[in-house]
Structure prediction request, 769 residues.
Amino acid sequence: MEDCLSKKIEITVSEAEKRTGRNAVNMQETYTAYLIETRAVESQNEGQCSPVDSLWRRYSEFELLRNYLLVTFPHIVVPPLPEKRADFVWHKLSADNMDPDFVERRRIGLENFLLRVASHPVLCQDNIFYSFLTQEGGWKEMVNETGFQLKADSRLKALNATFRVKNPDKRFTELKHYSDELQSVISHLLRVRARVADRLYGVYKVHGNYGRVFSEWSAIEKEMGDGLQSAGHHMDVYAASIDDILEEEEHYADQLKEYLFYAEALRAVCRKHELMQYDLEMAAQDLTSKKQQCEELATGTVRTFSLKGMTSKLFGQETPEQREAKIKVLEEQIQEGEEQLKSKNLEGRDFVKSAWADIERFKEQKNHDLKEALISYAVMQISMCKKGIQVWTNAKECFSKM
Amino acid sequence: DASLAEANSFSPSMPTSPSSLINQYKFEDEPELRDLFITVDDPESHITAIETFITYRVVTKTSRSEFDSSEYEVRRRYQDFLWLKSKLEEAHPTLIVPPLPEKFIMKGMVERFNDEFIETRRKALHKFLNRIADHPTLTFNEDFKIFLTAQAWELSSHKKQGPGLLSRMGQTVRAVASSVRGGVKNRPEMFSEMNDYMETFSQKINVLDKIAHRIYKEEREYFNEMKEYGPIHTLWSASEEDIADSLKGVASCIDKCCKATEKRMAGLSENLLPIIHEYVLYSEILMGVLKRRDLIQGELDSKVDALASKRAEKDAITEEIGKLEDKVECANNALKADWERWKQNMQHDMRSAFTNVAENNLHYYEE
Prediction:
């Protein structure tokens, strides 16, 4: 297994900055630029301080990179980008793209994307990817020169188009089914989680009101005063603690979101297979019908109805020379067709083989990552409970002194 | 003179002497010294041609000599409790008579006789009678005894004997009139302080009531969302192999959290909410008590003024004044002592209510 890029260089997306500039139609716009820093790992190990290369990229350039990878490596499950717009928002989170919390989470997401690509055995070797990290100017032109947009099959863009495929590889059908389920279940989970977060926020914050009332009440009480006052303080602490707790949970949500988008990437590979299979079947069908035509012309029997056949019956037979010419053309076409079919078959089998290898790799990664995410979620919940225990133990003590 | 006699039976419990303080504490903290045990239970619905109403069973067990028997069981309806309360207030205008649950609940109750409502009311009525039983003076009130022991027909005939509706209305009219006049000229400082305290307390307790209800509501909404959250993980685990177990684990934990939240909510609604509510009512009662005290004082003051102006009927008025002065002093003392008692109770109740909330939250987080 070749060394992945991620082992050779350290990649970070370290900063985000607001910029203004002119866009394609020469209108002013504000956007955020992200600073990508790379540093060679080897020299670090030797104790030398290696120089840091850095350049700025904006989100649209990341998108361009990903689209290039999608087209160039159709058999690979390409890592997803963090969401373009804030989704699954609960009331305190803002849906504004310029909001600093959103920008921060996006920065982390972009770094994660680069790391995923860099640690992928196939993707990391791509030149365009390497230039994305190292070459500031002229990168866009370079990408466009590869002409990848021409390779892109517009049929894949139609999300809901189905191809009537007769013999798809069963594994891909199952996988597509799985990716649909995964997408649906994760988005449902994220939606409910956002609502739960909202409610939890409410419970905690209302306790903060206790703090104020207790403090005002303690002013008129003699013996109860101290107990009330300090209990009120603990209620304030309790109410404030929810902010950090929910911020941490957002990171968990982001981890789930990554796999929500990964499901789409999985689906894309399945559809590519479907498309290839479809083309193959169409080509085979075409070949069969041509062979039939040829046979009919050669033997003079009409087994299937054709308009030409009818017209020639009605308006008289063609000359033997004409027939010979037709047969010759068809034979050439048949030969081409057979060659094409062979190569398509080969392509198809190669695709299935390499795609399936990447899918296995992806499955392992997914199981590992999701397990870790669930564990960290559980740990978060435990820590939240521990904090709760602490606050209420203190409050209980204050109350008992009232 | 009824009020004087009351004052005499009262003076041993005035807080000025340390031993009396101990006596007061003993009343609440050591139930073995109690000689009157009351329970309110078994609500039953009665349907007549004119109306439908609920009666509650009131069971009394006592070792006191003034009771003919040691056990009584009677049925009472809400109206009877209202009657008792007004009799007690009449007899002891400056003592703090515990609150009754409200007649109707404004918001959200479609049916007057829904189970939750009846149960909440039953608990409040039980508390009401027990608070009276615990009160050093009220517990010996004659009407109270009749309420606990008389059969239904005996009670209704007794009710008809007392000063009629008209005299009570007269009292109310005079009270309103005097408060309009603002008869608080010579209010001793202690009672002014009490008044200020009660105004602030009343404000704060009402806010607390709102907060506590709001917390309950938020917890309920949280619970509703959580109910949906767990099953999603179970659904997901059906599509997975490797991580299916982890997902199922998370689902079951979330369900446990749900159950813990339910317990927490129950704790709130059984403990904190009723107590805060009781003290909301108490704050209204206390304001009323303070007003009545002012009223009595106002009577005295007006007679003193009359004396100043009508020299002729000096003797008659002086005698009246004498009586009124006694009355005022009794009223003041009664209130003072009861006030202290009430505050002790309030403190105790609040302390235990909030400690209970804290404990419930601890259990919640521990689970």
Q: What stands out?
A: Residues 204 and 264 of chain B are 24 Å apart (CA to CA). The two ends of chain B are 62 Å apart (CA to CA). The interface with chain A takes residues 197, 200-201, 204, 207-208, 211, 214-215, 218-219, 221-222, 225-226, 228-229, 232-233, 235-236, 239-240, 242-243, 246-247, 250, 253, 347, 350-351, 354-355, 358-359, 361-362, 364-366 of chain B (CB under 8 Å). Confidence is low (pLDDT under 50) at residues 1-31, 179-183 of chain B.
